[in-house]
């Protein structure tokens, strides 16, 4: 099937008439982006004026545009033209966006100077644009990470609003999306910045001595937060000046991994984290939503997934064990292997940066929005094992109602061939399911229901789908 | 080991093939002129709408067939020689068989309208129909759809997904009112209009008018109105696609005549799915069942017969589903357009006008006979079990929460439904809490 009309819209799948309000909203949102680009190009802008304008324009413009586009149409599934549009079907526009995102991540990780970050000097470009915000919150200039965190949060908020209008008929999607938006804004962005502002983290004393840094995004649980146990983080959390927060983060961080995660995953599946709370998941579900259908559903992709995600998991466990060994013994190497250069550095480079950042987000328009979550994330791997073998969560199939249409599988961002189960009348119990609920939403026949129930009969495969008396189970 | 040849790779033929393979080592060949691989016919609309590509509509990856030793052949069967047990293809080739399964599906109905074979006039059933619809609807300013059934409303939705103005001619007084009772039918009428589809009820097609190139340029309705259009969708039902059986000696009427074992009048020749017509009616069911689910169930039964375990096609309690634009529809048991004399009727509609529930039950015994639910989802297992156990409407309403299949966190309507039911029927039914124990007991 060929393309009917070229359309580069990311937000409105098929604008019949783009009205004046939509056009103005689009201009406003683009103006916000333009300010970013201008700042990046070192155009002399008064950051204290243009930074708030940029943020408000991007969030406000996107929200109004999304509202206008979707509220004009009857509520329902809005996937018209997804496979016809360049951006959402791996066309030229998708490649362009993918290359831009990838390039941005490369600069951010390894060449922050090119986005304007100046160590021990006055920032320039994009980073400088966020100096006033950083100054206002914590009284010091922005870093490239502050700039990135701000943009990341803006993306989740603005495109989360768009998602809410798109799925306004589904209370599950509404509440879930509000949850990831709040989690990002409050836990990942606001609280850490406030703690730093109140000198509970990232402090340099008046004497010029750096006290230390630890991760204060409480929902960023180890092993996703792979450097949680690095010695300088552990030291910082025990730093006197940071109490009681340092110890709270240490105890809660370990508690979430050891106790919170297994219990919650047992009760409601890994979705409590992946699609309701997690920052990576938050971006995937909002900004990444237009790319969810690009995940591969091949059996071979599933095989690769199981090898990769569990390899990364073993890698992070070994790396962390070695790190802790070094921390408690003071050794800098294990079996003659240097802990930093042979364990921590490769993990940070290959997994932390390349896999989760560059491939995970940069490749959204090519591989879908959950590549990292599906193939890499060790936290997802850990919860996946619990979800697969010891959990109340499953997707129930509605008897014989499946028509094998394939919408569920197509729109599964985790590449689960949902249809393969649904057409057999079997529950979907899969380690990788993040519980986004979109399979259930796009099903035209009401076949799929995410639910938590007794483990009894959870794995049952009916010998024959109900509705047919020709074949008795006893046969 | 037999050489089983199946003509048709739709849900009926493929289900037969898969189950024969599960049960036996017979040689299996599936022939199709339509596509190389099995795809979900019900999903054709989503390809046009850009929700999926063709590859997504294939329920099995392409390696599946070789792995399961199901040979696929792309060919058009022109003639069936039942005496010599040989198929003759359009390219002159032949293929012998030991047992033959006819699963050739349907073709769109054409009722002899003037102009029905013009360019730009078509039905929608096959993959080829989809391709021609893609070509026929390029840059058009209006489409007309003739026939208010499931394919008609799907076609309207497809065209609207590309912002093509649609006029929808429905012969009946209200959409699909030979199947849907008035409340449901009116709801869909409103929803069709909400989608800016020009719905013309009680309107027939009189003629399709050609331009100078043999292409449709307009239609004329029964009332003499001319509507300019460049595309006409004929969706007034389908009928069995059995042209290839002419002269084969296989008895046909509208479809291929079969007994309850799906056997035709000729030994070792079977038929199932859309193209089969039962000699004896099966309960309240139609003699020709053109439904995805029934095709699948016939395949499950026929595979056993082919593997020397003679098995009648014995469908259980009726169920079906559809989606009318944004409104989902499910039905369990029998809900006739008009309640029969022995039936009581209850209809509840949400104030938003997009969610409703209808119940029918026996006046004397109170036993539930059927349910229609639109705009929300109900559990198939619950109703299948309740019908088998002969549960009364009172019991069903009491336990309605067990049957709710809407996504979590959705608003529920049971209390409102039961309040209205109690009010109208002078009852005092109390809603029970959802019970996982009972839900798990449905599946046993």
UniProtKB/TrEMBL annotation, chain A:
Listed PROSITE patterns: 4FE4S_FER_1 (PS00198), 4FE4S_FER_2 (PS51379)
- Report the transmembrane regions from the record: 24-43, 49-71, 92-111, 145-165, 177-198, 247-268, 307-327, 347-367
Species of provenance: Roseivirga ehrenbergii (strain DSM 102268 / JCM 13514 / KCTC 12282 / NCIMB 14502 / KMM 6017)
Which stretches make up the 4Fe-4S ferredoxin-type domain?
393-421, 424-453
Per UniProt, the keywords (alphabetical) are: 4Fe-4S, Electron transport, Iron, Iron-sulfur, Membrane, Metal-binding, Transmembrane, Transmembrane helix, Transport
Gene Ontology molecular function terms on file: 4 iron, 4 sulfur cluster binding; metal ion binding
Keyword Metal-binding belongs to the record: yes
Q: Which InterPro entries does the record match to this protein?
A: 4Fe4S_Fe-S-bd, 4Fe4S_Fe_S_CS, Electron_Trans/Redox
Pfam families documented for this protein: Fer4_10, Fer4_5
Q: Which Gene3D superfamilies match?
A: 3.30.70.20
Q: Which domain of life is it from?
A: Bacteria
The protein, known as: 4Fe-4S ferredoxin-type domain-containing protein
The GO cellular component terms are: plasma membrane
Automatic annotation (TrEMBL), chain B:
Q: Cofactor(s) for this protein? A: FAD
Report the domain of life of the source organism: Bacteria
Q: Which organism's genome codes for this protein? A: Roseivirga ehrenbergii (strain DSM 102268 / JCM 13514 / KCTC 12282 / NCIMB 14502 / KMM 6017)
Q: What's this protein's name?
A: NADH dehydrogenase
Its organism's taxonomic lineage begins at:
Bacteria, Pseudomonadati, Bacteroidota, Cytophagia, Cytophagales
Q: Which part of the chain is the FAD/NAD(P)-binding domain?
A: 3-295
Q: Which SUPFAM superfamilies does this chain map to? A: FAD/NAD(P)-binding domain
Q: What keywords would UniProt list here?
A: FAD, Flavoprotein
Instruction: Return the similarity comment.
Output: Belongs to the FAD-dependent oxidoreductase family.
Which GO terms of the molecular function aspect are on file?
A: oxidoreductase activity
Name the coiled-coil region(s): none
Transmembrane intervals: none
């Amino acid at each position: 099937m060929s393309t009917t009309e070229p359309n580069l819209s990311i937000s409105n799948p098929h604008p019949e008439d783009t009205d004046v309000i939509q056009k103005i909203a689009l201009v406003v949102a683009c103006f916000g982006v333009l300010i970013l680009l201008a700042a990046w190009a070192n155009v002399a802008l008064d950051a204290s004026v243009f930074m708030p304008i940029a943020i408000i324009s991007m969030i406000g413009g996107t929200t109004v545009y999304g509202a206008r586009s979707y509220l004009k149409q009857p509520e329902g599934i809005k996937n018209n033209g997804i496979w016809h549009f360049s951006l959402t079907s791996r066309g030229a526009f998708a490649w362009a966006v993918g290359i831009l995102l990838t390039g941005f991540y490369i600069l951010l990780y390894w060449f922050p100077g090119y986005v304007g970050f100046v160590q021990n000097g006055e920032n320039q470009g994009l980073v400088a644009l966020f100096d006033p915000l950083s100054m206002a919150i914590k009284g010091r200039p922005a870093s490239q990470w502050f700039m990135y965190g701000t943009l990341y949060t803006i993306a989740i908020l603005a495109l989360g609003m768009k998602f809410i209008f798109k799925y306004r008929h589904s209370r599950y999607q509404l509440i879930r999306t509000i949850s990831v938006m709040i989690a990002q804004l409050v836990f990942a962005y606001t609280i850490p910045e406030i703690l730093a502002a109140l000198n509970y983290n990232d402090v340099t004393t008046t004497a010029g001595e750096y006290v230390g840094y630890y991760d204060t995004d409480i929902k960023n649980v180890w092993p996703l937060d792979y450097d949680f146990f690095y010695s300088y983080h552990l030291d910082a959390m025990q730093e006197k000046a940071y109490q009681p927060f340092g110890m709270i983060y240490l105890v809660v961080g370990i508690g979430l991994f050891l106790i919170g995660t297994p219990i919650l995953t047992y009760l409601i599946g890994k979705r409590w984290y992946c699609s309701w709370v997690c920052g990576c998941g938050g971006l995937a579900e909002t900004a990444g939503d237009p790319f969810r259908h690009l995940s591969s559903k091949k059996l071979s992709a599933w095989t690769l997934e199981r090898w990769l995600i569990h390899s990364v998991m073993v890698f992070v466990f070994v790396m962390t064990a070695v790190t802790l060994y070094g921390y408690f013994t003071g050794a800098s190497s294990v079996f003659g292997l240097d802990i930093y250069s042979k364990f921590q550095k490769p993990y940070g480079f290959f997994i932390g940066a390349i896999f989760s950042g560059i491939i995970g987000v940069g490749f959204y328009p090519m591989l879908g929005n959950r590549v990292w979550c599906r193939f890499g994330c060790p936290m997802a791997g850990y919860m996946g094992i619990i979800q697969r073998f010891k959990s109340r969560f499953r997707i129930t199939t509605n008897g014989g109602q499946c028509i094998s249409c394939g919408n569920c599988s197509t729109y599964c961002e985790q590449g689960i061939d949902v249809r393969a189960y649904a057409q057999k009348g079997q529950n979907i119990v899969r380690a990788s399911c993040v519980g986004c609920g979109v399979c259930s939403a796009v099903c035209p026949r009401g076949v799929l229901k995410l639910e938590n129930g007794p483990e009894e009969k959870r794995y049952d495969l009916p010998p024959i789908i109900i509705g047919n008396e020709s074949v008795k189970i006893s046969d | 080991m037999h050489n089983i040849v199946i003509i048709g790779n739709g849900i009926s033929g493929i289900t037969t093939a898969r189950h024969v393979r599960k049960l036996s080592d017979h040689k299996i060949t599936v022939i199709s002129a339509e596509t190389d691989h099995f795809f979900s016919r019900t999903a054709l609309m989503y390809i046009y709408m850009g929700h999926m590509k063709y590859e997504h509509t294939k329920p099995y990856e392409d390696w599946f067939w070789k792995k399961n030793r199901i040979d696929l052949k792309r060919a058009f069967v022109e003639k069936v020689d039942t005496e010599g047990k040989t198929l003759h293809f359009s390219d002159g080739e032949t293929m012998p068989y030991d047992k033959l399964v006819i699963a050739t599906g349907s073709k769109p109905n054409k009722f002899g309208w003037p102009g029905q074979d013009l360019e730009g006039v078509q039905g929608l059933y096959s993959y080829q129909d989809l391709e021609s619809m893609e070509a026929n609807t390029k840059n058009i300013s209006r489409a007309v759809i003739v026939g208010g059934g499931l394919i008609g409303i799907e076609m309207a939705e497809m065209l609207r997904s590309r912002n093509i103005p649609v006029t929808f001619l429905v012969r009946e007084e209200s959409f699909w009112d030979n199947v849907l009772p008035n409340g449901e039918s009116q709801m869909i009428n409103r929803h069709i209009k909400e989608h800016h589809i020009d719905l013309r009820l009680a309107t027939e097609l009189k003629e399709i008018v050609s331009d100078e190139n043999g292409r449709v340029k307009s239609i004329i309705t029964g009332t003499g109105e001319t509507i300019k259009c460049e595309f006409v969708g004929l969706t007034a039902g389908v009928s069995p696609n059995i042209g290839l059986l002419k002269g084969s000696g296989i008895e046909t009427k509208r479809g291929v005549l079969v007994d309850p074992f799906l056997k035709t009048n000729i030994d070792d020749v079977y038929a199932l799915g859309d193209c089969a017509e039962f000699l004896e009616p099966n309960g309240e069911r139609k003699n020709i069942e053109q439904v995805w689910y029934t095709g699948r169930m016939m395949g499950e039964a026929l595979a056993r017969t082919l593997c020397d375990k003679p098995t009648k096609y014995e469908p259980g309690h009726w169920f079906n589903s559809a989606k009318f634009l944004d409104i989902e529809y499910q039905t369990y048991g029998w809900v006739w357009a008009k309640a029969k004399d022995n039936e009581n009727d209850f209809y509840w509609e949400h104030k938003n006008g997009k969610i409703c529930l209808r119940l029918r039950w026996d006046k004397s015994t109170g036993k539930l006979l059927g349910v229609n639910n639109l705009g929300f989802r109900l559990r198939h297992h619950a109703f299948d079990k309740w019908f088998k156990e002969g549960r009364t409407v009172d019991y069903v309403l009491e336990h309605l929460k067990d049957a709710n299949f809407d996504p979590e966190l959705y608003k529920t309507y049971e209390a409102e439904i039961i309040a209205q039911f109690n009010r109208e029927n002078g009852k005092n039914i109390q809603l029970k809490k959802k019970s996982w124990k009972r839900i798990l007991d449905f599946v046993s």
